[in-house]
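Table S2 (text version). Query chain:
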Amino acid sequence: STTVKPTRMSFNQLLTAWSKSTEPQAAQRAEDILYHMKRVSTLDGYADMKPNTVSYNTVITAWGKNGELDSARRANNILKQAIDQEENDGIECIDAIMFNIVADAYAKTSSNKAHLKSRAVLNRQISLYASGHKRCKPDVYSFSSVLGSCASLTGSRKERLQAFDVARHTFGDMRESGAEPNHVTYGTMLKACARLLPDGKERRRYTREYFEMACENGCVGDMVMRRIQDAASPDQYNEMMKGLTRSNLPQEWTHAVPYNDKKKRRRSNGKTGKRN
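Corresponding structure-token output:
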């Protein structure tokens, strides 16, 4: 009877329930349902059961939140299936959110190759967008996952320097794409300076460069102020602050910072000021 025929919406609701579940096998259950939808959609009269953007996004989310490398790989595999379906059927299926979740899933792992995996996801996203898949246009979150993964790397001096190079080029690609760096972006780049670069000329150069860009774009929020103290030497910090403290930053330095971040900075006043 058509009155009890399952719909794609009902399956998507089931996928959402498994995606939100805390059961250990929840992601696998969601993936099994996705494959069932694919099988059913090949039957006569059931073509409308084929997974759509919501279906794929939900299963990718289920795998992406686990923080394990294998789970990130599973999320990436589902993304590849969504890409294949769109390219084979010619019907829009992929979007930027899918790529962002997978890139972030890799970034959350403890792998010392996480930043390279995240960057590979971003590379494919950029390529697909350039080839006409307009819904997967990279946004600030697409680039931020790669930057955050680079900045969090722990490894040898060589690995840290290579990760900084990935972060630096990703930041450049972000600006060229038209995605506007925000207060988190600049804070992350300053974190990368502090964690990945040894004390010396290069660290001073990039610390100054990213802080001055944050100032010029009104993005000096709580995160930027915390990270600049980590990245800069006391002398460089005091020089760049020009006698200012966290409590009297000029409006042109902070105008693009969300209100809640400004509140955090005000609560921090009195705890940190000029460095000696």
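Notes on Table S2: Residues 99 and 121 are 7 Å apart (CA to CA). The first helix runs from residue 8 to 20.
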